[in-house]
Amino acid sequence: MLPGCLQKHSLFLNHAFMMFLCIINFDILRNLKESLLVTRMGAEIIPFIKLWVVTPSAFLFVFCYSFLANRLSKQHLFVFTIVPFLVWMPVFSLYLYPNLAELAPSSICQMMSDYLPDNLTLISGLLENWPLTILFACAELWGTGVLCTLFWSTVNDTSTVKSASREYPLLTLVGNSASLLSGPMILLLVRELTGHNDNGWQVSLIYLSMIFVVCGLIIIWLYYHSMTLAPSLSAPQKNHGDTATRLPLKSSFLFLAKCPYLRSIALIMLGYCIAINMAEVAWKSQLVRVYSTESEYSMLMGQLTFYTGLGCLLMAVVTMRLMRFGWRIAALGTPLLMVCTGIPFFLAVALSNSSWLPEALSAPMLLAGISIGTLCNVASKSAKYTLFDVTKEMAFVPLNNEQKLKGKASIELIVSRAGKSSSALVQQFLIVTLGSLTASMHWLASIFMIITIVWMVSVGALSKQYRRYGFIEKGFREKEEG
């Protein structure tokens, strides 16, 4: 057995490396889901797939997760959750993607297209490209189910409020540096293979899938290794009243609705998901007008992944600084950053498509809007993976086992999906009524602004409840020194 200080440092490094590998896999899935689907069907497909495919998948995931959590140990639950992803990726890259045309139910899709209105024919495209649709859902579930739920639940189980305020910013700094590796890796892999091989995109897809599987196996090994460093992870859970972890799924949702503290966390998550979805889908609808092929889009995403990694390093440092001023100040950083970068993006794109703008200025204004939107996307994601996640996870730390397990799973999977689904429903309505996302920019901007205001109000409400748990708002240093 290692001494206490060394054991704690070893556990931190173990968690950091787990997060590093989780984010590499997340970057691979995020790159592939957008490169394969958006370039084929346009960014307008995103609201449809998030509402009609990803949302039911998230509910199914939570049901299965809750079912298994009530019957398996934490160790087995972790493995049973990750293994399906590791099986799916090789099957997709080696069999499904090379045979997309043969696997497409063309007759059914043609029948659907004949009966559906023109603005809803995208739904038949989801069925026609069903392997790409499932890949998109897997990418979304890896981010919420594995990274946000499984990984952070493991970390929260071995943390206290005092240690979380000190270690979480550093953990996100180390973990999110993975994008500095995954971004250039994807970019160089796709560029080299597509430049020297007619079948290069297919080969690069296979390589990325193999990397995904290797990283996943290492994640499982690191989890089991962390149990030797933190005996509390492998200790059986005692079934004592409110610390039990065996509530049914329906009861856990009712518990979430009745707990004001968890309800405030849910509102913050809801605000982020709606705001980022409004800005990101609008940005991608303009981006695909310039980068229209799978390889071009994939290489661009690789570059943006690298820039997001750099942004995460910067935001991790900012997070450590802001935490000195208290939880509330740090939690307000993400919505304020999104407002400062999101509103100029919406204005620039709206101007580029306005009828009174001279035609000679339309294209430069569009490129300016895409550039500002890229800055908004990189800054928002960087803040989300560091500042937002740190403050959110710290809010879970003082809760008991029942609140952590069931409440966190419900918030991360159901509430986040409800936010993305509601925004997707609004976007679908705008696409059907106005024709495209480009024509809906002023509506998207208005919703974006309203939601961020609600988000900031929710941060203030949660901050008051956070203090009632006995934590000092003016700075965690005072509590540590006390």
Automatic annotation (TrEMBL):
<feature type="transmembrane region" description="Helical">
    <location>
        <begin position="260"/>
        <end position="279"/>
    </location>
</feature>
<comment type="similarity">
    <text>Belongs to the ADP/ATP translocase tlc family.</text>
</comment>
<feature type="transmembrane region" description="Helical">
    <location>
        <begin position="134"/>
        <end position="156"/>
    </location>
</feature>
<feature type="transmembrane region" description="Helical">
    <location>
        <begin position="443"/>
        <end position="462"/>
    </location>
</feature>
<dbReference type="InterPro" id="IPR004667">
    <property type="entry name" value="ADP_ATP_car_bac_type"/>
</dbReference>
<dbReference type="InterPro" id="IPR036259">
    <property type="entry name" value="MFS_trans_sf"/>
</dbReference>
<keyword id="KW-0067">ATP-binding</keyword>
<keyword id="KW-1133">Transmembrane helix</keyword>
<feature type="transmembrane region" description="Helical">
    <location>
        <begin position="168"/>
        <end position="189"/>
    </location>
</feature>
<feature type="transmembrane region" description="Helical">
    <location>
        <begin position="12"/>
        <end position="29"/>
    </location>
</feature>
<feature type="transmembrane region" description="Helical">
    <location>
        <begin position="77"/>
        <end position="97"/>
    </location>
</feature>
<keyword id="KW-0472">Membrane</keyword>
<dbReference type="Pfam" id="PF03219">
    <property type="entry name" value="TLC"/>
</dbReference>
<feature type="transmembrane region" description="Helical">
    <location>
        <begin position="330"/>
        <end position="351"/>
    </location>
</feature>
<keyword id="KW-0547">Nucleotide-binding</keyword>
<keyword id="KW-0812">Transmembrane</keyword>
<comment type="function">
    <text>Provides the rickettsial cell with host ATP in exchange for rickettsial ADP. This is an obligate exchange system. This energy acquiring activity is an important component of rickettsial parasitism.</text>
</comment>
<feature type="transmembrane region" description="Helical">
    <location>
        <begin position="299"/>
        <end position="318"/>
    </location>
</feature>
<feature type="transmembrane region" description="Helical">
    <location>
        <begin position="49"/>
        <end position="68"/>
    </location>
</feature>
<protein>
    <recommendedName>
        <fullName>ADP,ATP carrier protein</fullName>
    </recommendedName>
</protein>
<keyword id="KW-0813">Transport</keyword>
<feature type="transmembrane region" description="Helical">
    <location>
        <begin position="201"/>
        <end position="224"/>
    </location>
</feature>
